Amino acid sequence: MITVDCKDHITHITLNRPAVLNAINPEMHAELQNSFDEFAGDDEQWICIIKGAGERAFSAGSDLKAIAKAGSKRQPYPKNGYAGLIERFDLDKPLIAAVDGVAVGGGFGIALACDLIIATTRSKFGLPEPLIGAVALGGGVHRLARQIGLKQAMGLVLSGESVDAHRAYELGILTELVEPDALESSVDRWCKQILRCAPLAVRASKEAMMKGLDEPSLASAMKAQESYPTFTRMQKSHDRKEGPSAFSEKRQPNWTG
Known about the structure:
By secondary structure, the protein is α/β, with parallel strands linked by helices. The chain folds into two domains: 2-195, 2-enoyl-CoA Hydratase, Chain A, domain 1 (Alpha-Beta Complex), CATH 3.90.226; 199-248, Lyase 2-enoyl-coa Hydratase, Chain  A, domain 2 (Orthogonal Bundle), CATH 1.10.12. Helix content is 42%, strand content 17%. It is globular, with a radius of gyration of 19 Å. The model has no long low-confidence stretch (mean pLDDT 95).
């Protein structure tokens, strides 16, 4: 259902059901939950890239045929929500969605849960759940409104319409828009840029930004930031000393995470 490869501090997770546009069924939910658990718990894995197999889709979201077949016996989502990711609010490591093709419904929800979305020009995005009598409660409606603003999000959600990649970039959904043959090199470039930084500093930065958005004011966010757990851990780490030492000695830092 999925493939996982870990190399050079990067975990690659591929949604691997191209014949059904990488639609997610119960078995896939369980595999993704386990894979994200392993990524979150492994201090040697610093970045996760999520992509879909084939050239047609990142993911079309839930496998509707599997849902229809299960009927009232439909299995609940994993403990961390849709795809084992949507409600993983404490995951402070960088997540990159590499999107090539359709990313709709829960597939779009997965992408929205990532920190960076790098997408090709042939990609499409949307939350079409109302068209099939459903609601995008797997985080989609909430994240979309927070990321692009209420009125634009309402327009997409209430109509069930999808947007092409260029419009998605204009709306601020995407970090970068590339041609299909440049997707892999673009993602590699972003990973190399992130890996230049101290991993705990990256994690503490994400933690501060995400938790800060939940604070009622800028003042409270700035007051709370130094009490966050990853920031506290970073302050006591080898890397906190290694950065200034490497700079003063005019050498590349040796990050240990």
